[in-house]
Amino acid sequence: xxxxxxxxxxxxxxxxxxxxxxxxxxxxxxxxxxxxxxxxxxxxxxxxxxxxxxxxxxxxxxxxxxxxxxxxxxxxxxxxxxxxxxxxxxxxxxxxxxxxxxxxxxxxxxxxxxxxxxxxxxxxxxxxxxxxxxxxxxxxxxxxxxxxxxxxxxxxxxxxxxxxxxxxxxxxxxxxxxxxxxxxxxxxxxxxxxxxxxxxxxxxxxxxxxxxxxxxxxxxxxxxxxxxxxxxxxxxxxxxxxxxxxxxxxxxxxxxxxxxxxxxxxxxxxxxxxxxxxxxxxxxxxxxxxxxxxxxxxxxxxxxxxxxxxxxxxxxxxxxxxxxxxxxxxxxxxxxxxxxxxxxxxxxxxxxxxxxxxxxxxxxxxxxxxxxxxxxxxxxxxxxxxxxxxxxxxxxxxxxxxxxxxxxxxxxxxxxxxxxxx
Length: 422
Prior knowledge:
Layout: H1 2-17, E1 19-21, H2 23-33, H3 35-55, E2 61-76, E3 84-100, H4 104-170, H5 176-211, E4 219-221, H6 236-246, H7 248-269, E5 274-287, H8 292-295, E6 298-306, H9 314-380, H10 386-420
Parallel strand pairs: 1-4
Antiparallel strand pairs: 2-3, 3-5, 5-6
Helix pairs in contact: 1-4, 2-4, 3-4, 4-5, 4-7, 4-10, 5-10, 6-7, 6-9, 7-9, 9-10
């Protein structure tokens, strides 16, 4: 009856003073307001802009050049033999079109496309991790509240017995040490109540940060049921094959290898000539007056070639480094797949273990409850000591806390397993 009273009290408090948030609502708010998710969204937007910029490196560019310079001595100006000045002006405008870069432009575009895809995968990864963190956070609150109910019920039982003992002590039916033992157990359960309340407050504050609710606003979570057998709908072999092939970690490792291959192409292109077509209008000889730069301008056009023919093998060494980097990332890609298999298998085995422990903890809780009520009757009848009674009550309380904690771990382990498949 006391437990029902406590539950009713909590329900009234929720309705009057706090904003109620379900688990699904908390997840939705965290994906919308979470700062880490917002940062990942910006990374995706940045990668799109960089990709757009890389496409434009293949397009012609228009360049304007203008220069004024003053020297110590007079020098020839323009096309006239008798024109000399210490000051000179030049200006021109032209268009430059890359013709050949050894595949560097296309490789750079492919790299930025890969970067955009990796940014999107990281964004999905952040949403996945945010969801799991909110589930852990929310479940911890539920677990602490369940434990708090067990502690409050235990305190109520101990207080009832304590009042009875005070009467017995006044009647010389028990000795002082008996009531001191009860006082010790009361202090112990009160400290656990304080700890549970502190845990609830801390986890609620963390949840408010994660979902973007102001610190001063009160919130209350809603209890949710956990299915008895979460393993029923799991096909481990299918899940493992899917995770190794298409999970975010696997895809990012593959993209990193692809990025390195394109980087190898870029480094190879640095050993090749760079060919551009150009055309422009302007004065390419200094004029003594700025106005003459437009009057005496001319059209020019052609093809230019730039080639670093010899740098003591510097470009080749850089290229060889990219070749080895490709080999390294291919090994890392295989290592990632191995880690995925290990992590998914470990998470699955943990889930199996926790399901078995959950069953044993539930039976232990039922047994402790039955034993407590039997021992309570025996204690009231004077058949067992106060120490035996207090031990029995503590075992019942602890069995509830252990089951609640295990139930929380079981559900979080299931969600962790699901996250590893994404």
